[in-house]
Design a protein that fits this description.
This protein is mainly α and 172 residues long. It has helices spanning 4-112, 128-139, and strands spanning 143-147, 151-155, 161-165. It has a three-stranded antiparallel sheet with strand order 1-2-3, covered by helices on one side. β1 (143-147) and β2 (151-155) form a beta hairpin.
Length: 172
Amino acid sequence: MVTREQMDTLTTRVSSVLELVSELRIENSHLKAEVEQLKERQDQSDRKIEEQAKESMRLREQLEERNAKLNEMILKEEELENFMLQVIGQMDQVRLSEYQKEFVRVADLKSEGGLAESAAPTGGAQTPAELLQVDIQQNGAFSVESSTEDQVSVDLDEGRGMEVVFDDDDNP
């Protein structure tokens, strides 16, 4: 039979086991709450990473679109620059033609005796080369490197050179 002392000892032991069980249940509930908080943080982190990935993709697409537009604009700029150079070339041809016409007019007036040397309309220039040289010096668009009666060498902007030769075939 069980004695009273044994019964007290067993009761004490059962009480301590119940207290331990109670403490373990409390600790378990704290751990469960902490696990839930960690899961929430992980979910939030996952959502943020996903949002950042979407934002990154959107920005990448935007960058690609803008790069494409930039490339298109660069191509259009090059086309426009080529067109402008063609127009400037055509204007230079018209200008040279006007110089040649002026030269012929001045030469005709001189040969007819209707124009004195000092009365030349372009400051006394007698050849197309001289007419062009006077205009270049007045406008300052480029500098004259060398000049002869039939030919003028000029240095255009950006270091590009140009040589203008006046042949008899060019006269109207």
